[in-house]
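Attaching the record inline, Q. Sequence:
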Amino acid sequence: MKTVVFDFDGTLADTFDIAVDVYNKVAPFFRVKAISNRDRQLVKELSLEEFALSYGVSEYKFLPLVLVLRYLIRKEKKRRKIKIHDGLLPVIKKLSISGFKCGILTTNSRKFVNSVLKENGLSGEIFFVETNAFLKKKYKTLFKLKENYGDIVYVCDEGRDIVAAKKAGVVSIAVTWGFNSFSNLSRFSPDFIVSSPAELLNVLTDL
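Structure, as predicted:
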Protein backbone atom coordinates (compact mmCIF):
# COMPACT_ATOMS: atom_id res chain seq x y z
CA MET A 1 0.00 0.00 0.00
CA LYS A 2 1.25 3.49 -0.86
CA THR A 3 2.37 6.16 1.58
CA VAL A 4 0.78 9.56 0.96
CA VAL A 5 2.99 12.50 1.95
CA PHE A 6 1.13 15.79 2.33
CA ASP A 7 2.68 19.22 2.17
CA PHE A 8 1.31 21.23 5.10
CA ASP A 9 0.94 24.94 4.31
CA GLY A 10 -1.61 25.50 1.56
CA THR A 11 -2.15 21.81 0.86
CA LEU A 12 -3.50 20.57 4.20
CA ALA A 13 -3.70 23.79 6.21
CA ASP A 14 -5.51 26.88 4.99
CA THR A 15 -2.70 29.39 5.61
CA PHE A 16 -2.65 31.46 2.41
CA ASP A 17 -4.41 34.51 3.91
CA ILE A 18 -2.09 34.47 6.93
CA ALA A 19 0.95 34.54 4.64
CA VAL A 20 -0.46 37.44 2.58
CA ASP A 21 -1.49 39.44 5.66
CA VAL A 22 1.96 39.13 7.23
CA TYR A 23 3.69 39.96 3.94
CA ASN A 24 1.62 43.14 3.63
CA LYS A 25 2.56 44.20 7.16
CA VAL A 26 6.29 44.07 6.42
CA ALA A 27 6.12 45.28 2.81
CA PRO A 28 6.60 48.99 3.72
CA PHE A 29 9.67 48.19 5.82
CA PHE A 30 11.33 46.31 2.93
CA ARG A 31 10.05 48.85 0.38
CA VAL A 32 8.36 46.21 -1.71
CA LYS A 33 4.90 46.28 -3.26
CA ALA A 34 2.02 45.09 -1.09
CA ILE A 35 -0.57 42.59 -2.35
CA SER A 36 -3.93 44.30 -2.81
CA ASN A 37 -7.19 42.53 -2.02
CA ARG A 38 -7.92 42.50 -5.74
CA ASP A 39 -4.63 40.72 -6.46
CA ARG A 40 -4.78 38.06 -3.72
CA GLN A 41 -5.88 35.39 -6.16
CA LEU A 42 -3.78 36.74 -9.03
CA VAL A 43 -0.50 36.12 -7.16
CA LYS A 44 -1.33 32.42 -7.27
CA GLU A 45 -0.61 32.61 -11.00
CA LEU A 46 3.01 33.64 -10.37
CA SER A 47 6.11 31.56 -9.78
CA LEU A 48 8.38 32.66 -6.95
CA GLU A 49 10.70 34.36 -9.44
CA GLU A 50 7.79 36.12 -11.18
CA PHE A 51 6.41 37.31 -7.86
CA ALA A 52 9.79 38.75 -6.84
CA LEU A 53 10.05 40.62 -10.15
CA SER A 54 6.47 41.93 -10.07
CA TYR A 55 6.56 43.06 -6.45
CA GLY A 56 10.02 44.59 -6.33
CA VAL A 57 11.71 41.92 -4.21
CA SER A 58 15.28 42.29 -5.39
CA GLU A 59 17.86 39.57 -4.90
CA TYR A 60 19.49 41.25 -1.90
CA LYS A 61 16.09 41.72 -0.21
CA PHE A 62 14.84 38.19 -0.85
CA LEU A 63 16.53 36.20 1.92
CA PRO A 64 16.06 38.80 4.71
CA LEU A 65 12.40 39.16 3.70
CA VAL A 66 11.85 35.40 3.72
CA LEU A 67 13.47 35.02 7.14
CA VAL A 68 11.35 37.81 8.65
CA LEU A 69 8.21 36.40 7.03
CA ARG A 70 8.87 32.91 8.36
CA TYR A 71 9.33 34.22 11.89
CA LEU A 72 6.23 36.43 11.85
CA ILE A 73 4.05 33.86 10.08
CA ARG A 74 5.02 31.31 12.73
CA LYS A 75 3.86 33.73 15.44
CA GLU A 76 0.65 34.55 13.57
CA LYS A 77 -0.18 30.86 13.10
CA LYS A 78 0.02 30.37 16.85
CA ARG A 79 -2.35 33.31 17.38
CA ARG A 80 -4.97 32.24 14.82
CA LYS A 81 -6.77 28.92 14.68
CA ILE A 82 -5.44 26.96 11.69
CA LYS A 83 -8.06 24.95 9.84
CA ILE A 84 -7.61 21.97 7.58
CA HIS A 85 -9.10 22.68 4.14
CA ASP A 86 -12.77 21.75 3.78
CA GLY A 87 -13.31 18.17 2.69
CA LEU A 88 -9.82 16.88 3.51
CA LEU A 89 -10.59 15.43 6.95
CA PRO A 90 -12.92 12.69 5.64
CA VAL A 91 -10.51 11.98 2.76
CA ILE A 92 -7.58 11.38 5.11
CA LYS A 93 -9.73 9.29 7.42
CA LYS A 94 -10.87 7.14 4.47
CA LEU A 95 -7.28 6.73 3.29
CA SER A 96 -6.21 5.64 6.77
CA ILE A 97 -9.07 3.14 7.04
CA SER A 98 -8.15 1.78 3.57
CA GLY A 99 -4.61 1.02 4.71
CA PHE A 100 -2.72 4.03 3.31
CA LYS A 101 0.00 5.50 5.50
CA CYS A 102 -0.45 9.28 5.63
CA GLY A 103 2.41 11.58 6.56
CA ILE A 104 3.33 15.26 6.42
CA LEU A 105 6.44 16.98 5.08
CA THR A 106 6.78 20.53 6.40
CA THR A 107 9.15 23.31 7.43
CA ASN A 108 6.96 23.91 10.48
CA SER A 109 7.92 22.39 13.82
CA ARG A 110 6.61 18.92 14.59
CA LYS A 111 5.08 20.24 17.83
CA PHE A 112 3.12 22.93 15.99
CA VAL A 113 1.84 20.58 13.28
CA ASN A 114 0.79 17.99 15.86
CA SER A 115 -1.16 20.68 17.75
CA VAL A 116 -3.01 21.66 14.55
CA LEU A 117 -3.77 18.01 13.78
CA LYS A 118 -5.14 17.52 17.31
CA GLU A 119 -7.32 20.65 17.09
CA ASN A 120 -8.76 19.38 13.81
CA GLY A 121 -9.29 15.78 14.92
CA LEU A 122 -6.58 14.22 12.75
CA SER A 123 -3.99 13.01 15.26
CA GLY A 124 -4.71 9.31 14.81
CA GLU A 125 -4.68 9.32 11.02
CA ILE A 126 -1.21 10.83 10.46
CA PHE A 127 1.54 8.21 10.64
CA PHE A 128 4.49 10.63 10.68
CA VAL A 129 5.45 14.32 10.54
CA GLU A 130 8.76 14.89 8.75
CA THR A 131 10.29 18.32 9.27
CA ASN A 132 12.40 19.81 6.51
CA ALA A 133 14.90 22.47 7.64
CA PHE A 134 14.70 25.84 5.91
CA LEU A 135 16.75 26.01 2.71
CA LYS A 136 17.43 22.27 2.87
CA LYS A 137 16.75 20.64 -0.49
CA LYS A 138 13.23 19.23 -0.29
CA TYR A 139 13.93 16.60 -2.91
CA LYS A 140 16.55 15.05 -0.61
CA THR A 141 13.97 14.67 2.14
CA LEU A 142 11.49 13.16 -0.32
CA PHE A 143 14.16 10.74 -1.48
CA LYS A 144 14.83 9.74 2.14
CA LEU A 145 11.11 9.17 2.70
CA LYS A 146 11.03 7.06 -0.46
CA GLU A 147 13.87 4.92 0.91
CA ASN A 148 12.08 4.56 4.27
CA TYR A 149 8.54 3.93 3.07
CA GLY A 150 8.93 2.63 -0.48
CA ASP A 151 6.12 3.66 -2.81
CA ILE A 152 5.19 7.25 -1.89
CA VAL A 153 2.99 9.93 -3.43
CA TYR A 154 3.56 13.62 -2.72
CA VAL A 155 0.48 15.86 -2.47
CA CYS A 156 1.48 19.50 -2.81
CA ASP A 157 0.39 22.97 -3.92
CA GLU A 158 3.41 24.78 -5.44
CA GLY A 159 5.55 24.46 -8.54
CA ARG A 160 8.74 24.11 -6.52
CA ASP A 161 7.20 21.09 -4.75
CA ILE A 162 6.53 19.44 -8.11
CA VAL A 163 10.13 20.05 -9.16
CA ALA A 164 11.35 18.45 -5.91
CA ALA A 165 9.13 15.41 -6.49
CA LYS A 166 10.51 14.95 -10.01
CA LYS A 167 14.09 15.12 -8.75
CA ALA A 168 13.31 12.52 -6.09
CA GLY A 169 11.52 10.23 -8.55
CA VAL A 170 8.24 10.56 -6.65
CA VAL A 171 4.70 10.77 -8.05
CA SER A 172 3.23 14.24 -7.50
CA ILE A 173 -0.40 15.26 -7.11
CA ALA A 174 -0.84 19.03 -7.20
CA VAL A 175 -3.91 20.60 -5.56
CA THR A 176 -5.47 23.86 -6.76
CA TRP A 177 -6.76 25.14 -3.39
CA GLY A 178 -3.32 26.16 -2.05
CA PHE A 179 -0.71 28.77 -2.98
CA ASN A 180 -0.63 28.17 -6.77
CA SER A 181 -3.42 28.15 -9.35
CA PHE A 182 -4.25 25.38 -11.83
CA SER A 183 -2.53 27.18 -14.73
CA ASN A 184 0.57 27.90 -12.65
CA LEU A 185 0.83 24.28 -11.47
CA SER A 186 0.34 23.03 -15.05
CA ARG A 187 3.56 24.71 -16.14
CA PHE A 188 5.52 22.30 -13.93
CA SER A 189 3.81 19.16 -15.32
CA PRO A 190 2.84 17.27 -12.16
CA ASP A 191 1.65 13.70 -12.57
CA PHE A 192 -1.86 14.78 -11.55
CA ILE A 193 -3.70 18.00 -10.77
CA VAL A 194 -6.86 17.88 -8.65
CA SER A 195 -9.37 20.58 -7.83
CA SER A 196 -11.26 18.97 -4.95
CA PRO A 197 -10.60 16.59 -2.06
CA ALA A 198 -13.02 14.09 -3.61
CA GLU A 199 -10.98 14.12 -6.82
CA LEU A 200 -7.81 13.62 -4.76
CA LEU A 201 -9.31 10.54 -3.12
CA ASN A 202 -10.29 9.09 -6.50
CA VAL A 203 -6.79 9.60 -7.92
CA LEU A 204 -5.09 8.04 -4.89
CA THR A 205 -7.34 5.00 -4.77
CA ASP A 206 -6.83 4.41 -8.52
CA LEU A 207 -3.01 4.53 -8.38
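The beta strands are 3-7, 101-106, 126-131, 152-156, 171-175, 192-194. The longest strand covers residues 101-106.

More tomorrow.
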